[in-house]
Design goal:
Helix content: 40-55%
Shape: globular
Structural class: alpha/beta
Number of domains: 1
Radius of gyration: 16 Å
CATH class: Alpha Beta
Oligomer: single chain
Strand content: 15-25%
Order of helices and strands: EHHEHEHEHEHEEHEH
Length: about 240
């Protein structure tokens, strides 16, 4: 389910990390379930953005859990009869040593015949820009709230391609390159038309460069028990 955010009720990067830890370790919510719920919720927004179009969705995925969320988006769209493709940004070996939930969803995507390309060389990144321009929708699944340093190399190039392509962009959790707490651009940040943020709004979406990068923001319920979220808000409000 997607809801409108309340900018007055946000959770920091550290608070969200602790929220995830409690849900997974204390209550036993499988992390793969949280990823599945996040990706499926984002796919609902993708379908809304695709209204009136039967064009292809191009997911630009990074090597971490944000990329795993993007793989779920692609799989969900394909399961609903939509054309979707994934471009993985980064060295080939990162496809083998990613987080477990990312690897699980990569395997699922491949097993159902999903198309996946790798973009790391300059020629591949140049082709990514042309492919983004031809897509009906682009999904920014490069990096999420955990990013704390400037995008570099192929990741900065991919963010630049997302900004230059002219195609509507949907960001997952936070636009890649945007500091989730401060709203600062970390080198270069994706400028999305819409952002689906997971579990709770992040303060950086409403501070500094955040509004210009995030576009329209929706909050996805991903299966973290509500009382844990309320506990996190109470702790955030405590002096």
């Amino acid at each position: 389910m997607l809801t409108d955010p309340d900018p007055r009720r946000c959770l920091s990067r550290a608070a969200v990390r602790e929220l995830d830890r409690r849900a997974i370790q204390e209550l036993g919510v499988p992390s793969i379930v949280l990823m599945e719920n996040a990706g499926r919720a984002a796919a609902e927004e993708a379908l809304r953005m695709l209204t009136g179009s039967d064009g292809e969705t191009l997911v630009v995925a990074g090597p971490g859990n944000n990329g795993g969320d993007g793989l779920v988006v692609a799989r969900t769209l394909a399961n609903r009869g939509r054309r979707a493709r994934v471009v993985f940004v980064g060295p080939h070996e990162r496809l083998q040593d990613g987080p477990p939930d990312f690897l699980t969803n990569l395997d699922l995507w491949r097993r159902q015949g999903g198309r996946l390309e790798v973009a790391v060389a300059p020629t591949e990144l140049a082709r990514l820009l042309s492919e983004l321009r031809a897509a009906a929708l682009a999904v920014d699944a490069l990096f999420g709230t955990g990013l704390t340093r400037a995008l570099e190399g192929p990741y900065a190039s991919a963010a630049g391609a997302l900004n230059a392509c002219g195609t509507p962009v949907l960001a997952l959790d936070v636009p890649s390159g945007l500091d989730a707490d401060k709203g600062q651009e970390l080198g270069v940040a994706v400028r999305a038309h819409a952002t689906v943020t997971f579990a709770a709004p992040k303060p950086g979406l409403f501070r500094g460069r955040g509004p210009g990068c995030a576009g329209r923001v929706a909050v996805a319920e991903i299966g973290i028990p509500r009382f844990l979220i309320e506990d996190a808000y109470e702790q955030a409000d405590s002096p």
